[in-house]
Amino acid sequence: MKELKFFVDCSVFDRSPQGTTTYIKGLYQELIKNNQNHFYFASYTNNFKDTFGEHDNVTYLKYISNNKYVRLLIDIPKFIRKLNIDYAHFQYIVPPIKYCKYIVTIHDVLFLDFPKYFPWSYKLSKKYLFKFSIKKADVVLTVSEYSKNKILSQFNRAEVAITPNAINSTFFEDYDKREVVEKVKSKYGIEDYFLFVSRWEPRKNHDLILKIFVEKGYYKNHHLVFIGEKAIANKAYSTYYETLSSDIKQKVMVFNKLDFNALVAIVRGARLSIYPSIAEGFGIPPLEAAAAGVPSLCSNTTAMSDFDFLNKGLFNPYDENDLNRAIVWGLKQERQNTIISSIIKEKYNWEIAAEVFLKAIHENQQLK
After folding, report:
1. How far apart are CA 165 and CA 157, in angstroms?
2. How far apart are CA 161 and CA 54, in angstroms?
3. Pairwise CA distance, residues 157 & 351, whole Å
4. Which of 112, 152, 179, 198 is the most exposed place for a label (fewest CB within 10 A)?
5. How many degrees, rounded to 5, is the angle at CA 265 between CA 12 and CA 246?
6. E-strand spans in 238-334?
């Protein structure tokens, strides 16, 4: 292929880190290795230059406004025309004015299959905007077989390519478990803890873990640690938590935000990682924990059903007894099976995602 100019909307870097941030970071750190193409990364704060570094084939652009409507209607079309961009890549929603080919990554359409977990305003707007974006895009990407099938069925799209999420290489590194446990205990006052890493939404099922943690008596010998920012309030969790005694509440720790090194340390120091989410378009945290050698328990629904290599660590998120069965099994494991870590490393890496991305672009080029 001739040299192509890619514009990448990096507005997600202007907000708190999330799955789309990790996706853009991992995918484009791999893609920029190909000096044949030029990449233009745009955001309002431009606080991600250290993420991609200085390269001859990378240019950083700054939006004039942090308002998403100004960005979509004015900033982006202006950059695309001025720079003669070939492809512009967006997460979920594309601009209405089109001056080049569009790539859109739709990470999930969970609001259509699990409407009760989303506000009505969100469902109404996203259904229209996703439909518009998928129709407008020349290349549609997603991150899992589950999400691909849902996009195909819900939006009648002929082709959707899967660029799977990957696990940061840091989680695969060797470390001294005992040393990490002591450091985490000294800094945070937690030990022998169950860990759940995820933002807060009702579909994430935080209340299920808390209920099992309390009613099965795990609080007597363990801590329960949640890491993630509040997105949508979980009333079931809050109501149940308020009924607990102060002694039990002291065994529950919540971190809204941690830097990457602190997150890695707490993941490594965990006795168990538990991911009880009811619905996901992918699900990175249970794989990160397993890659780090921590016994990882995960829901067996939606995109997470692909994680069958977790074996007895999979459980039904609607079944309290099945989660408890998985916990009992997990506590018997000192470390996650190293074979599982190898499977994750081979199956979920950015080299594969970049290959799929470039193949999708190449096939689109052939349609000319």
Report:
1. 21
2. 29
3. 26
4. 179
5. 95
6. 252-255, 272-275, 296-299, 314-315
122 touches 85 (CB < 8 A): no
Strand partners, 42: 9, 61
Torsion of Cα atoms, 185 then 190 then 191 then 194, to 10°: -140
**Maximum CA extent, the chain:** 67
* pLDDT tens, residue by residue, 139-177: 999 999 999 999 999 998 879 999 999 999 999 999 999
Q: Is 261 helix (H, G, I), strand (E, B) or coil?
A: helix
pLDDT for 304-343, tens place per residue? Answer: 999 999 999 999 999 999 999 999 999 999 887 789 999 9
Q: Are 171 and 265 a contacting pair, CB within 8 Å?
A: no
**Sign, CA torsion 256/258/264/265:** negative
| Cα–Cα distance for residue pair 231/53, rounded to 1 Å | 31
The DSSP code for 299 is E
Asked whether 89 and 111 are in contact (CB, 8 A), the reply is no
| CA gap 283, 288 in Å, rounded | 10
- What's this model's pTM, rounded to 2 decimal places? 0.91
Contact residues for 37 (Cβ-Cβ < 8 A; gap 6+)? 3, 4, 5, 6, 31, 57
For residues 108 and 148, the answer to whether their CB atoms sit within 8 Å is: no
- Yes or no: say if 63 and 44 are a contact pair by the CB < 8 Å rule: yes
